[in-house]
Amino acid sequence: MVVTREEVxxxxxxxxxxxxxxxxxxxxxxxxxxxxxxxxxxTIPLEQVKPIxxxxxxxxxxxxxxxxxxxxxxxxxxxKDGFVKGPRMV
Length: 90
Hints:
Order of helices and strands: HHEE
Strand order of the largest sheet: 1-2
Radius of gyration: 24 Å
């Protein structure tokens, strides 16, 4: 599959990125290599592969105990009425 410079430029526009000509060439090549690799992965036959069985119960992975964080929630001290106060959105 061939990825064109116009397609990469359009992706940059969608992501609101300014891409130089050197970056455009590099990204075009890199995206094409990624797509070629993904196409190669699609050719792997998976019919013979058995799914991995989980040997532990999910409840054994970690203890699920609630903790009270008090004023240390998200590393902020801005709290009001038990909630974290964020910046005002206009």
